[in-house]
Amino acid sequence: MGGKSRALPPTRGTLIERLRDPATAPAAYEALVAAYWKPVYAQLRRRLGLGNEDAKDLTQAFFTHVVERGSLARYDRERARFRTWLSRLLESFAANEHARSQAQKRGGGTAHVSIDPESADHRLGASAPVAADEVVESFEREWRRALFEDALEAFRARCVELGKPQRFDLLLRADVTEVPPDGSRPSYRTLATEFGLELTQVTNELHAARRELRACVLDALRARCVDEDDFAHERRALEGSDREIER
Amino acid sequence: MTLSDDAIDRLRRCLDGIEIPGGRYDVRERLGSGAMGTVWRATDRELGRDVAVKVLNDAFDMDRARTQLEREAKTLAGLEHPSIPPVHDVGRLADGRVFYVMKCVEGTTLAQWVRANPAPAERLRAFLKACDAVAFANERGVVHRDLKPSNLMLGRFGEVLVMDWGIATAPDLGERESSGRPRDDGGGGAGTPGYRAPEQRSGGPISPRVDVYALGGVLAFLDRGVDPVEGAALEISDRRLRAIVTRARSEDPTRRYASVAELAADVRRLLDREPVHAYREWPWERVARVVARNQFFVWLIVGYLVLRVCMFAFSSSR
Ligand SMILES: Nc1ncnc2c1ncn2[C@@H]1O[C@H](COP(=O)(O)OP(=O)(O)O)[C@@H](O)[C@H]1O
Ligand SMILES: [Mg+2]
User: Fold this and answer.
1) Looking at this predicted complex, what is its ipTM?
2) pLDDT per residue as tens digits for the range B118-128
3) Domain B107-271 class?
């Protein structure tokens, strides 16, 4: 897991409220960056074909942009999920960056394109047109990947703290590590042999592991959500929206 | 470590399901999910029967969610009525969330039932059973606040059950709308758009007339099979029924039926073809209604008259 994992202390108030309150804004900003750094970085790298360092700089610039240009003040929860809103903002930011670097290549000075987060017709140059849905989706994939990576990292720390590092390894082997294309996932019996445990121990440990991972995922999710409503949606999306939900 | 999409999918699956410590309950399938909770079927090993286990979904603020579910269980426990599911047990899941165990209703929600196209009179009778339970709760100071077809179930024996007392007001609290998590996407007070009363939207005082309003919506749903829309005209062809729904769904609470019992009484009149209080009928409508109600006697009289005419014709032709 690249980068350091930042365990977030439980905080009062929603992320948005804390970002808007000058007293809590610095810590909230840290939390926002910690939660969204990875997907923003991955998205910028992918969309603009940047190297590691450039992408890092631009990621930093994006977060500064979000806070300093007062974009957050314009976030309206009635109109979009926070994640979707942020990915649209990111898309227009990327489009703007792209236009500027093109202008520089052509020898012009710094072209100034105003960034309008609500405008959907910012495109990353004629060669790479993307549907708005695709942008939101690919951001969501990276966002989800980062969520689970952070959760796993927190889970690892918890296992170490409990003096049960094996629990983490067991989960890793059972659910995470890839198996060869023709192989199947290790059975509980295989795991018992591999780890030198009784079958019941494997069952119990994996049970506990999944329960604790679940708590870690939800903590990581809370850190990414701006309020109760946002959280409810994200949780439902995470569980899989293939279920009939009463309205 | 970078996780593959497959690994993420596998981990996502770990999030599902609930685990009840103690070994008494064996969790089976998901019975349904709402805005706040999920209900699972479980087998009670000690008594050898199926039960329903309600768990609140993970919330942003878990403390609040916990108190809310405990409160729901207590509200239910205080309402013993054949149309309100009995609570058997409360406890904590392995992950710390609160759950409660209730009777498992083998049946469908009214929302699903209407798709099977039951006869109009049957729909009204089911509605009246729901009204009985709500009136019973209202008399005890409990206002449900979230009545809608998906919170009403029809059991195997034709019984109707009023479910989901999650945001019901406890007696004697004189609450205003604001407590309780909003359980909808549209923002603004608790309840569900189409069924929640205007005073729920605006944070006004909560009274049983909130339930009268919502039940008016249920009645409209039962007639048409579609959710009523806030502020939109009703497309109900039966004038008496439309008048009842309109009165129940008045914007001004004081113009609604004063209680659920009064609403039910008017629906019963409609079912019995008696004059409905919400509707002033024209003289010919009255004749038609009386004729329809007394069909047997009307046919008897018609038969008698036909017989007399025949006899007259027979005797005069001789
Ligand atoms: N006792 C029960 N037996 C069977 N199914 C139930 C029971 N309680 C709830 N359900 C099903 O679960 C769904 C959600 O339950 P509900 O209590 O309404 O949750 P929420 O508070 O989230 O709306 C219901 O619409 C119904 O289909
Ligand atoms: Mg419900």
Assistant:
1) 0.75
2) 999 999 999 99
3) mainly alpha
